[in-house]
Amino acid sequence: RRVAIRKALDSARSSHLTDPVTGLFHREPFAAHLGRVFTSARARRRPLSLCVLKVVRTEALNRINQAGWLDRALPQVGAMVSRLVRVEDTAASLAADTFALMMPATGTDAARVAAERIAAVIACTAFEAGEGRSPFIIEFNIGVAEMKDGEGPIQLLERAVAGARQSVPV
Q1: Would you say 93 and 27 are in contact if contact means Cβ atoms under 8 Å apart?
Q2: Which is higher by pLDDT, 96 or 1?
């Protein structure tokens, strides 16, 4: 069963459902998959967590991006996100600087640890800022939400996004 799931996910990752550069799911296929996984998790009474990683747009990062350096780095960041998740997780691009991670059978605490690990790996990467300029790093705000009674998949996503807006950079 695990091999079949891996093959299915790998085939989806090499289809029109994902960005060919980053390997991240596009928003619409991600939303549809979230709905299916949400329904399955509820029926099985299993946890489901959703994490959102949003790039912190500091003044320094905005200055760097005036020359387009952040925009050039974001596809690399997305590719890193897609490769740093477990095979059973689903990573998506919600916007150029915002990434979502769906983590089935994972509670809030474990999901937060995984998201912080991914953010830490990316924060250890120096991205080019142009000739004569020091490389820059990228930090994230992280939002984590676990499925709860009385809500649907969209509310779960909204809570994770709201958490990323309110969190302290990691």
Answers
A1: yes
A2: 96
